[in-house]
Amino acid sequence: MNAKDIHSTHQDHERDGADTIAMAELLDLDAEVLHTYRAELTSWLGKLTDPAPGHVLDLGSGTGTGTLALLEAFPQAETTALDLSPQMLHHLSKKAHALGLADRLSTVQADLDTAWPDLAPADLLWAASSLHHMSDPDQFLVRAFDALRPGGLMAVTEMDFFPRFLSDDIRLGGVEARLHAALNEGPAVDWTDNLTRAGFILEAKRPFVIDLRAPLPGAAGRYAQISLRKLRSHADGRLPEADLALLDTVLDSDGPDGIPRREDLTVRTTRTTWAARRP
Ligand SMILES: C[S@@+](CC[C@H](N)C(=O)[O-])C[C@H]1O[C@@H](n2cnc3c(N)ncnc32)[C@H](O)[C@@H]1O
Q: Does residue 232 fall inside a structural domain?
């Protein structure tokens, strides 16, 4: 199983409302816990876009972790969020209304694996954790190229590996590392050649190292709980019983070693952004 397979459980069960709600919660938690990282990323993109973008597309927006960060970072910009899931877009619209940002947001339900809707040329495209979902990423990037104005910027972001939440204390004994190894995340994909093939010129490939330690943002415990539970659900038969039992101890939120009581939680991960220009 690789990272794509684990992520794709959402896509596979798009019809299943419960899965969509669970994914939406995870994305909202990600937005909260990794707020500082996203502010750093949008600020960096601001330096690569001159003049400031007036029209931004978020491709595979989910609940808008990126859309809302972009609306905040670029107060002049109109932003269009596109996603396969109407539920995700509805959730995003509600959040944008609550934040007073809805007047600069449009949402479009679209399958970006097929023909794209007609949209005004964009100054900035953002595709975070969505490119790996596409059945034909090269085709997606060609369509993205066509959706940009000449000189516009495309920002593709993918996570290099799933976040690590458990410190390597002696009792946990690296169980989380073994969990990740057992699920065979596979090496992170380098999208540089795909972008070049689509006609883009790569301006920068930048890893963002995220290493949060106590005191963590308030939502970090729930983020860890949901993320680890999702991985644990794939782990039966792939890890020794002792490791599974240890994981279950950590995932028992009422237990003495459960995540809500742990003071050694971390959020450690790396996400890479490719910033590529349409000449
Ligand atoms: C892992 S989520 C990432 C969401 C958001 N970009 C973020 O960074 O939080 C992937 C999103 O891509 C969307 N998606 C997957 N396949 C798609 C497709 N063919 N067309 C449009 N959206 C798609 C999913 O519905 C989901 O909201």
A: no
Pairing mode of beta strands 265-277, 148-159? antiparallel
- Structural domain boundaries, residue 44: 3-168+187-217+269-277
Q: For residues 136 and 113, is the Cβ–Cβ distance under 8 A?
A: yes
Closest CA to ligand 1's atom 4: 62
- Identify whether 131 is part of a domain: yes
- 83 Cα–ligand 1 center, Å: 6
**Based on the structure, what is the number of domains in the chain?**
1
In a domain, 199, yes or no: yes
Instruction: State the pTM of this model.
Output: 0.92
Which ligand 1 atom is nearest residue 7's CA? 1
**pLDDT surpasses 70 at 151:** yes
Rounded CA gap, 52 and 77, in Å?
8
Q: Which residues line ligand 1 (CB under 6 A)?
A: 7, 11, 27, 30, 60-62, 65-66, 83-85, 88, 110-113, 128-130, 133-134
> Furthest-apart CA pair in the chain: how many Å?
57
Tell me the mean pLDDT in the region 61-89: 97
CATH number of the domain encompassing residue 18 = 3.40.50.150
Best mutation site among 130, 154, 210, 272 for ligand 1, i.e. most ligand atoms within 8 A of its Cβ?
Answer: 130
